[in-house]
Amino acid sequence: MQRKIIAALGLMAATALLSPVSVRAENIAEGKRIYAESCAACHGTNLEGQPNWQQVTETGEYPAPPHDRTGHTWHHSDKVLIDYVTLGGAELLKSQGINNFKSGMPAFGEILTEQNILDVLAYIKSTWPPREQQVQKSRSNQ
Length: 142
Description:
This protein is an all-alpha fold. The chain has a single domain, classed as Cytochrome Bc1 Complex, Chain D, domain 2, CATH 1.10.760.10. The chain is 54% helix and 0% strand. It has helices at 2-18, 25-38, 40-43, 78-87, 89-95, 114-126, 130-140.
């Protein structure tokens, strides 16, 4: 647990320098590959998410949301997205004082490198229409 937080703090510090996430061809291609290996099982091969992703399941968790324009990923800044992937949903929310939210999103901070996470986000962002990209970019630059 402590290693995860230390790794996340390093990534969070790097975020200030790397934000917004670079959306270059080489990052997109690598991100697409990593997404297929690490994310698609829950978030869908085509970023479509799980059915009924806005409704709590019997276990008290929300299904994995889509990462395409129909989801809410583009509503969040780069920092929030990076922290969510690095720490996992429950740990990130706990760090913000929200202790009773069940999240199925695992922490990837010890599984993926900082660059891997940035590349996955570059791939996801590359699929959004210009309007969603612009909104998300403006939230990342605040």
